[in-house]
Amino acid sequence: xxxxxxxxxxxDDKVTVFGVESVASQxxxxxxxxxxxxxxxxxxxxxxxxxxxxALDMLAEPIALESLRETVxxxxxxxxxxxxxxx
Length: 87
Description:
The chain is of the alpha+beta class. The chain has helices at residues 65-71, 75-82, and strands at 2-11, 15-29, 34-49, 52-57. It has a 4-stranded antiparallel β-sheet with strand order 1-2-3-4, with helices on one face.
């Protein structure tokens, strides 16, 4: 099973940084034991400032927020947190 999740990495008065991670897990059972495998990989970084919101992939290339919106659960909730800078 694979899913995307977000976490706040850094926050101060001028900037908030969120990480977008891919989380995958797999489990199995053999005759003698249960096995669990997990993997967490970075996918993107959201940088929120008073000037706006930027999304970057892991090669520091800009990516559209709309493409992340399709795959990241609760991205709109995170963007609302970022909009606090614009007040």
